[in-house]
Design a protein that fits this description.
Blueprint lengths: L2 E5 L2 E4 L4 E8 L7 E7 L6 E7 L4 E3 L7 E5 L5 E6 L8 E8 L11 E4 L3 E6 L1
Parallel strand pairs: 2-11
Antiparallel strand pairs: 1-3, 3-8, 4-5, 4-9, 5-6, 7-8, 9-10, 9-11
Length: 123
């Protein structure tokens, strides 16, 4: 069974940087889509960045332009590098794995989720 474990979250000052990591264990060969999502209280999870098996990358939301998603060659680690962080970037960040011919933002295509890692940006 595929398992995802996020790490790298914490508290940072506005304007600072954080790199989140998602460690993948188990057989993830069928999960061609990996993504990072953010959730804040009272809102649904929203997509931040997606990366497909062929390294196609898609970004969404206010972090676009300030984040970079990447994966190692073995697809054992998915990173999310965040820069110039703002207070509104705060939230719980989740790593997710999904299947599909094309990678989209539809939450239903992601069947495996990590426990989340908290990011708190202070002014």
């Amino acid at each position: 069974q595929v398992q995802l474990v996020e790490s790298g979250g914490g508290s940072v000052q506005a304007g600072g940087s954080l790199t989140l990591s998602c460690a993948i264990s188990g057989d993830s060969s069928s999960r061609n889509c990996m993504g990072w999502f953010r959730q804040v209280p009272g809102q649904e999870r929203q997509g931040v960045a997606l990366i497909s098996h062929d390294n196609t990358r898609i970004y969404s939301g206010p972090l676009t332009g300030r984040v970079t998603i990447s994966q190692d060659n073995a697809r054992s680690v998915i990173n999310l590098e965040m820069e110039r962080l703002k207070v509104d970037d705060s939230g719980m960040y989740y790593c997710a794995a999904g299947r599909g011919r094309t990678c989209t933002w539809h939450l239903t295509m992601y069947d495996t989720w990590g426990q989340g890692t908290q990011v708190t940006v202070s002014s």
